[in-house]
Amino acid sequence: MNKNLLLFIFFIGISSLLCSVKFKPNDEIHLFSIPENWPIPVYDFNKMPLDSKIIDLGRHLFYDPILSLDNSVSCSSCHLSFTAFTHVDHALSHGIGDRIGTRNSPVLINLAWNKHFMWDGAINHLEVQAIAPITHPSEMGEDLLNVLAKLKQSKKYPSKFFHAFGDSTISSKQLLLALTQFQLTLVSANSKYDKVKRKEEIFTKQEKSGYKLFQKHCASCHTEPLLTSGEFENNGLPIDNTLNDLGRGKITQNPSDNYTFKVPTLRNIEFSFPYMHDGRFKSLNEVIEHYSSGISHTPNLSSKLKNGINLTSNQKVDIIAFLLTLTDKEFLFNPDYQFTRD
Amino acid sequence: MKWLLFPILFITLSGIRAQTTKDLIIEFSIPPVDKTIELEKLRFYITNIQLYSEDSIVFEELESVHLIDLMESQNSISVAFPETVGFNSIHFNLGVDSLTNVSGIYSGDLDPTKGMYWAWQSGYINFKLEGKHPLSQARNQSFQFHLGGYLPGQYSIQQLKFATNNSLKLNVQFDINSFFETIDFSKENTIMSPGENAVKLSEKIVTYFKLNE
Questions:
Q1: Which residues of A fall within a CB distance of 8 Å from B195?
Q2: Does B197 score more than 50 pLDDT?
Q3: Structural domain that includes position B95
Q4: Which residues on A lie below 8 Å from B111 (Cβ)?
C-alpha cells in the first residue's frame, strides 16, 4: 500500500480517538457555553465533561422527593425554577415536617462561577453541596446511604443511572455528579441587561440612570457581569438576636469574618424575594431603603457602606428600574429546567 | 517508516507495565485498652505515602488514600513499589490534604458515606475516636473526637515519619492508653468541628503513633 495513504489513515484514527476522548458527548457545546465577555468558570469541566444523559438524571433527582427522609421534600421545594430557583415568599426556608431553617434559600444561578456555596461559604465545591441539604435535619433529614438504598429499590433509577454512567451501582459520587451537572446548566445570561451589553437592545432613560447609579454605588460588591463578587461582606443589617447568625465567621472562626455573608447575585432579583440571608426584606423598595438609611454599624461593616448610600427618591426608583432589567425570562421559563416525567 | 512508531511505543509501554514490584505492608494496631474504657469507633485516614532514601524521595504512591478502621479490622495497607527502589524512611500523612478537601466528590475510601465527611461544612474528618469513659461528663459518659479541618488556622493534617531499613512489613501502633492518660475527660470529651481544639488534639495524637520494631 501507498505509504502516504497509511500515514493518512493513521492520523485520521489518532485524531478521531483524541476527539472522542476530549468531547465525549457531541452536544457539549450546547449544554454549556461561556457567555461573551464572561470570566472562565470556577468549576473544572475537564474532570468530567457535561453529558446530556447525566444532566437528565440530575434533573429527575432534583425534582424527586425520594431524596428526603419522608419522601415529601425535593430540591425544587426550596429552589423553584420560576422564581430563580429560590423559596419564594419564605423568609426562612423550611424542610421536612415543617421544620424551619435559619436562612433564606439562595438562588441557583450561574453556579459554575461560584467559589463558595451557602450564605456562609460552608460548602467549598458544587459537587459536595447537595450533601448538606439532603442530610440536614431541618431540610431533607436523610442519610446518604439510605437515599442510595431507596434509589436502588426504585423502579426508575437503576436504569437511569445505567444509562447515564454505564453501570447501575448507584454510588454517592454518581448521585452528586448528576445533581451537579444539572445545576451547572442553570445559566442566566439573557436578561435585558445582557442584551444591552451585547448591543441588541437599549436601556430606557430611567434604566440608564439606574445603571449609572448602580455602577457607582453597588457594583463594587455586585460585580458585573455575574452581579456578585462571590466574596463575603457585612452589609449593615441590624443583628437579629433571635438568630444571632455569625455568617462566615462561624466557618472560619476568625472574628473579622463575623456577620459577613456571601454577596448574592442580583440576576433575576425581581423574582427572588424575600431578600437578604434571613429573608427580612419583602420588596426591592425595602432593600434600597436599607442601603440608603438603614445601615447599622455592626462589627466588620463593609468599608464601602460606612456612610450609607445617599439617594434621592427619584434615584431609588431608577435603581429599581435597572434591577428589573436583570430579569431573564428565558432562564425563568426554560422548559429544560422544569420538572419532567420521562 | 513512521508507522513503525506505534508498535515500538506499544512494546515500550508494556515494558514499563511489566516492571516487577514489591509490596510494603503497613499494619496499624492499638494495645489492649483499660476495661473501664469502651471504644466504639477508631478511624483515620493515611494519605500521601512516600518512600525516602536519605533526603530524597524515591517513591510516591499514586492516589494515596487509605481509610483505616481499627474497630472493623480494616487495619492494613499494601503499597506496591518498584523492586529496584531502596529506602530508609517512610513518610505519610494522618489526614486528608487541603487540595483533596476542596476538589469535589470522590469515591472509594473518600466516599462521603464512609462517615468521615462533614456534610454541613465541607471537609474530611481526618481522625475519629468515639467511646465511653468513666470520667466523661457528656451524656452516657461518651466521648467523641472528630478531628479535621484544612482552612488556615484550622489545619489539622499531621505528618508521620519513620526510619526503616527496606523493611517490607511495618507495624505502627497508636499508643491509645498513653494518649488517654493525657486527656482530662471531665473537661475534654467532645470535639465535632474544625478549630483550635481540633488542631491541638491532632498535634497531640500524632505523637502517639509509634513504629513497633
A1: 253
A2: yes
A3: 22-212
A4: 171-173
